[in-house]
Every structure is written in C-alpha cells, then in structure tokens.
From TrEMBL:
It comes from Glaciecola nitratireducens (strain JCM 12485 / KCTC 12276 / FR1064). This is ATP-dependent zinc metalloprotease FtsH. The chain crosses the membrane at residues 101-122. The keyword GTP-binding does not apply. Its cofactor is Zn(2+). Residues 597-640 are annotated as: Disordered. It is found in: Cell inner membrane; Membrane. GO terms for cellular component: plasma membrane.
Length: 640
C-alpha cells in the first residue's frame, strides 16, 4: 500500500512538471533589460512587440529578426506613446494564458486528492496489516504468529516451575487433540493466568504455542473496546472464526479485565458495548466443544474484578498463578537474559538475585539491559558486576544526581545520617547486612544505605522488626549526637514514618504486643476489603494502643542511641570516609567497624570521578538550616 502511494505521488509530480513546461515553456530568447529595450525602441530597432498583460512581459522581434523578451518593471504609461510614435512597430496585446482544461482541474484538485490519499493510507494502517478489505471495522485485530514464527520455548521462561507444570498438559493436548481425548484427558478450553505485571504471563503463553508448535493469536482486551456498539462483539466472532480455521491453536487475550469486568458494575450507562463484547466471548467459548483444539488463554492481574460468568466451568475454569519470582527464580531468569550479553568473570547471578527482592521477570530483563547499556557507554567489552550493581541501584532508587550541588554542611549532615543507619544496622541483633552507603543524591533522597537480605522474607520476627525500627532511627540519632538538637534536619521524616508504621502494625494487626494481645485493631484499614467490624474503639483502647506504640518506639530509639554513643569513633570515621569516597561498600564498612584503616574502593583510582567531585571552595557559602528534601520512596531494603 505504501508503495502504491509513493508511485502515485511520483506520477503526480511528473505530470505537474509536464504541465508547467507546456504552459510556460517558450524557447528561451534573448533577454533584454527594460532600459536596453527602451533604447532600442527609441533607436527604431524594434519591429514588433506583444505585451502580455498578465505577466507584464514583452516579447517581440527586432528589425534584424532577433527575438527578444523583457520584463516591464513598473506600469509604464509612456511606453505606448513611444512605441506608437515610432510608427512602424506592430503592437499587440496578449490575454492572460488559458490553462488547458485538464491541467486546471488537476492543479485545483491535486491537494485534495493528496489529502484523501493520505487519509486512506492511515486508515488502512490503523486497521492493522492483516485486513484485506479496506475498512475492516468488524475484523479482529488479533496478531497471528504462525507455528514456525514462534521461537519461544519453556527454556525461555524461568523461575515459575509450578506454572510451567500446570500448563504442560496443554502442550500435550495441542500436539494431538484427538489422541489426548482417547486417553481420557479432560479437554481444557480456557486458562486464566493470574499474576502481577511483568511476571511472564505473555511469555508463558507464547512458550506453550512454541512447545506445541501451533499458531498463536494474541490480542489485548482493550482492543475489543471501541467507540461503536457492536464492533467489539463482531471482532470476537471474527477472531474465533479465524482461530477455528487454523486449529489447533492458542488464542491469547492479555488484560482480559478490560472486557471481562463484572457486568452491571459500572456507574450509569455506556457499558453496553463492553457487555456485548463479553457476552459474545462467553457465547463463543460455549460454542466450541474442545475437539476444535483451541485453547483460550487470558491474562490479568486483577482476577477479583472479573465477571464470575467468565470463570464458570467450560470457560476460564483453570487458573495458573504466575507470581513474582523468589530468589532462585530470579537467579534463573537473570541467567536466561544474561545469555544474550557478554559477561565479565566476576558476575555472580545468585548475588544479584539476592539483592533484587520484589523484582519481576520484566524488571530483571530490564536490569540486564541497563547493565549492558552502562558497559556500552564506557566502551567495555564485557558486562561485569560493577555494571549490574549500577543498574540495580538505578532501577531501585533512580539515577544518581551527581550534578546536584550540596553544600559542604549538607553533605556532612547526610554523611552522619547515613553512617548512623549503617552502624546501627550492623550492630542490632537481627538486621540484613548493610552492604553499601552513599551520600550521592538519588531521585529525591540525599543519601542511601542499602541492605542485602539473605533470603526473601515472607514474615518477620518481633526481633527483626524491632531491629528495623532501631536502624531507621539510626540516622536521626546520629544527627542529634553530632549536630546537637538545634542542627537536626528534616532528613529523617521518611525514617520516622516507616518506623511508626512498623510499630503500629506490630501492635494493631500483627499481634506482637503482649499487652494488647493477638487482636486486630485496624478496622479502618481493612474496611474496604472485609467490611470492617464497624465497632468504634473505646477511648481507653486507643490510649493503650498509642502507649504500646510509644513503648516500642522509645525502646528501640534508646537501643539505637546506645549503639551510636558506644561507637562514636566509628561514626566519625565513617562520616570521614563518606565525605572522601561518597560511596562505601561492604568491605570498607567492615574495615570501619573493625577500626582499621579504610581501604579505598576497588575502582577508586581508575574511576575518573575520583577527586573531581570534591566540592569547590565556595560551596559552603549557602550554608544554613536549609530543609532537606524528604524522600518518599519506600523500598524496605533501603533507608535514606
Ligand atoms: N519468568 C520469566 N523468565 C524470563 N523472562 C521473563 C520472565 N518473566 C518476564 N520476563 C521478561 O519480561 C518481559 C515481559 O514479560 P511479559 O510480557 O511476559 O509479562 P506479563 O506478565 O505478560 O506482563 P503484563 O501483565 O504487563 O502483560 C518478557 O518479554 C521477558 O523478557
Ligand atoms: Zn534516614
């Protein structure tokens, strides 16, 4: 189609040029300046002139038979007198040129035609490449991947073994539907994949098609939702018709919640279209008996909003959970994506996996990609652990903002604050090891302290929670001790919020306060989901809860303060190290805690940032009690 359009454009341009030549193309004759022409008139050299009133051009012939043209620069009233005075000059006029009929139509209509052409072109584009008819409103937009186009296999999907096992039966069925039936297998029709975004639902569905070597239709639920009533429904019909022609095959509907929300749940009208589409889908799913060999796989991360009719037997009656990967899953996913990049010797996937709790498969794919970009930017041949670390920090905490100018005083405050977190984090009874402390601003935070969990945590003991509260206060206490009450900054607001939240949860919903007992006091928060008990708490209960929260906070604040007061020398040393290196790693923290000379970081000498980011002499001019930007990001493995 695109080629056609270009061809037409070329033809049009050529035609234009041809017409131009016909209308204005008299062979070039001797061009005269108007003054010369006048002189020649006066001299009597001119025999004949023709004056073109539309172009103010005079063409003519001299006595010696030379042809000439000239342009009248202004309306010269005296010219006519002059010419007529000569007596023997033949003067004639010329009417404005008549364009040929075709040419004028063409020139007038050309822009119109062009616009119409472009419009048709885009309409076709929007209808998707597949449609053969010009306006295929009712055609499905499903993209079809032929069985030989799918390269994805189960080997590409890592870290969700249960899900793979759940769907392996589908592969058997698709490979040979009739055999499967003879063996007494129950024919699956619809499978609902449930899980958070980026966990590989699409990937898994594609892998099923790849393993079974069947075609793969994919469409997003939102593609069905159109302005025009009935379009979505006819798209559904069309999609199933297409699928029946190429069965056995898989139909994959991403974001099914876009069409599959509970019917009648919307406020007011305007949902007819979506409901019709949903009804049509139910009709189609009931309409085939399974021997067609079509499996409909739908994906959603909101199974709770789906219309129950979708989940009834014979429809999406199987659910496959695709959850966030655990530490081993993350390692495997990393390895899958690392196959595509040249790796340095020091890359340990398991270590990266440990530092990335909560990452989805898509996040991990992105991590590998970012690391490769970092390596490319510094012209490295391989991607090594440093790049993975940088990429991870960037994804978790936003890019470093090295250009942000902090005053010397602010930097010192931040260094004390982060050192306080790090030291308390190291010395409380139960805390994930501190592995990095930095006073380079990131995102909205002025500095960060990062912890490396040993394994994914699904629950926390009371001791762990109290240790965390103490560590969160480490930053504020370090400021109080070193800067005095007057110098304390607002940098701890996020720490305080998080510590308070933990303490509150311990008392009101985790049953970890002996005095309040294992009772849930958090009606307000759960109201949305559980309906709430609706019973207001007595004033006395409220007071008791507050007292218990205060007790937890005070106890751990005191514990953290004791740790820091006992280690004032380490606090000073760590502040100095941070001021010097800006980022210190686990090894250097070890050195500091053991009170030995701090080794510079491995990349200190080679890294060109060394020295250059020392603040310039005048940096401390803008000192003063400037408020710190309160960070609001909340990754549990980081404090600011
Ligand atoms: N388990 C996994 N193994 C390997 N790669 C994965 C995995 N999960 C996700 N990825 C990577 O993340 C990308 C996006 O995943 P995918 O589109 O399948 O997620 P999804 O669950 O369908 O997300 P959404 O709900 O947002 O559509 C994949 O192309 C792949 O590169
Ligand atoms: Zn802090």
């Amino acid at each position: 189609m695109a080629k056609n359009l270009i061809l037409w454009l070329v033809i049009a341009v050529v035609l234009m040029m041809v017409f131009q030549n016909i209308s204005g193309g008299e062979s070039a004759t001797n061009k005269l300046a108007y003054s010369t022409f006048l002189e020649q008139v006066k001299r009597g050299d001119i025999r004949e002139v023709t004056i073109d009133q539309s172009t103010n051009e005079i063409s003519g012939v001299r006595n010696n038979n030379d042809a000439f043209v000239t342009q009248i620069p202004y309306l010269d009233m005296k010219l006519m007198d002059e010419l007529l005075m000569q007596g023997n000059v033949i003067v004639s006029g010329k009417k404005p040129e008549e364009q040929s009929f075709l040419a004028s139509i063409f020139i007038n209509w050309f822009p119109m035609l062009l616009l119409i052409g472009v419009w048709i072109f885009f309409m076709r584009q929007m209808q998707g490449g597949g449609g053969k008819g010009a306006m295929s409103f009712g055609k499905s937009k499903a993209r079809l991947l032929g069985e030989d186009q799918i390269k994805t296999t189960f080997a590409d999907v890592a870290g969700c073994d249960e899900a793979k096992e759940d769907v392996s039966e589908l592969v058997d069925f698709l490979r040979d539907p009739t055999k499967f039936q003879k063996l007494g297998g129950k024919i699956p029709k619809g499978v609902l994949m449930v899980g958070p975004p980026g966990t590989g639902k699409t990937l898994l569905a594609k892998a099923i098609a790849g393993e079974a070597k069947v075609p793969f239709f994919s469409i997003s639920g939102s593609d069905f939702v159109e302005m025009f009533v009935g379009v979505g429904a006819s798209r559904v019909r069309d999609m199933f018709d297409q699928a029946k022609k190429s069965s056995p095959c898989i139909i994959f509907i991403d974001e099914i919640d876009a069409v599959g929300r509970k019917r009648g749940a919307g406020h007011g009208g305007g949902h007819d279209e979506r409901e019709q589409t949903l009804n049509q889908m139910l009709v189609e799913m009931d309409g085939f008996e399974g021997h067609e060999g079509i499996i409909v796989i739908a994906a959603t991360n909101r199974p709770d909003v789906l219309d129950p009719a979708l989940l009834r037997p014979g429809r999406f009656d199987r659910q496959v959970m695709v959850g966030l990967p655990d530490i081993r899953g993350r390692e495997q996913i990393l390895k899958v994506h690392m196959r595509k990049v040249p790796l340095g010797d020091n890359v340990v996937a398991s270590l990266i996996a440990r530092g990335t709790p909560g990452f989805s498969g898509a996040d991990l794919a992105n991590l590998v990609n970012e690391a490769a970009l970092f390596a490319a930017r510094t012209n490295k041949r391989v991607v090594s652990m440093e790049e993975f670390d940088k990429a991870k920090d960037k994804i978790m905490m936003g890019s470093e903002r090295k250009s942000m100018v902090m005053s010397e005083e602010e930097k010192t405050n931040t260094a004390y604050h982060e050192a306080g977190h790090a030291i308390v984090g190291r010395l409380v009874p139960k805390h994930d090891p501190v592995y990095k402390v930095s006073i380079i601003p990131r995102g909205r935070a002025l500095g960060v302290t990062m912890y490396l969990p040993e394994q994914d945590k699904y629950s926390n003991s009371r001791e762990e929670l109290e240790s965390r509260i103490a560590t969160l206060f480490g930053g504020r206490i370090a400021e109080v001790i070193t800067l005095g009450e007057a110098g304390v900054t607002t940098g701890a607001s996020n720490d305080i919020e998080r510590a308070t939240n933990i303490a509150r949860k311990m008392v009101t919903s985790w049953g970890l306060s002996p005095k309040m007992g294992p009772i849930n006091y958090e009606d307000e928060e759960n109201e949305m989901f559980m309906g709430g008990s609706g019973k207001p708490k007595s004033a006395e209960t409220v007071r008791d809860i507050d007292a218990e929260i205060r007790l937890l906070i005070d106890r751990n604040y005191a514990a953290a303060e004791k740790i820091l007061r006992d280690n004032l020398d380490v606090l000073e040393a760590m502040k100095d190290a941070l001021m010097k290196y800006e980022t210190i790693d686990a090894k250097q923290i070890d050195d500091l805690m053991n009170r030995v000379e701090v080794r510079p970081p491995a990349d200190w000498e080679t890294d060109d940032k060394a020295g250059s980011d020392k603040p310039s002499g005048g940096a401390s001019i803008n000192a003063g009690g400037e408020a710190k930007d309160a960070p609001d990001s909340d990754t549990s493995d980081v404090t600011h």
